[in-house]
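Long-time lurker, finally posting.

We've been working with UBX domain-containing protein (Zooxanthella nutricula) and I want a structural starting point before designing mutants. I don't trust myself to interpret raw outputs, so I'm hoping someone here can both generate the structure tokens and explain anything notable. Sequence follows.
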Amino acid sequence: GTPGLTTIQVRLPSGKRLQRRFLVEEHTVDQLLAWVERASVEDASLGLPVLTACEGYSLMKRIVPGGQLKLERAGGSTKVGGQDAGGKTLRDAGFETGGEALTLQL
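Top reply, 14 upvotes:
Generated this for you. Predicted structure of UBX domain-containing protein:
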């Protein structure tokens, strides 16, 4: 495969899933969230509200050992684990190559 490539799957509240590949060294947390936001606008079958119109939402990522990392968007700012992080690369935010599963929480 391509070095630095990860497949991110996001489980939605409806039970549906979004999936896309990202480069962990190049793509940012903001780009990941923009992809999910765009899907909420363009694909009504997902059963999502328009995320940019929501007060906030978060993506939860399981981390080992036994924890969770919260990627949060609220009031136009992006936080990862409580720290401002919109411009961080996915790698800097703790993403690995291969695959990652996230859960969307509204």
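Before you design anything, note these points.
The chain has one domain: 5-105.
Residues 29-42 form the longest helix (14 residues).
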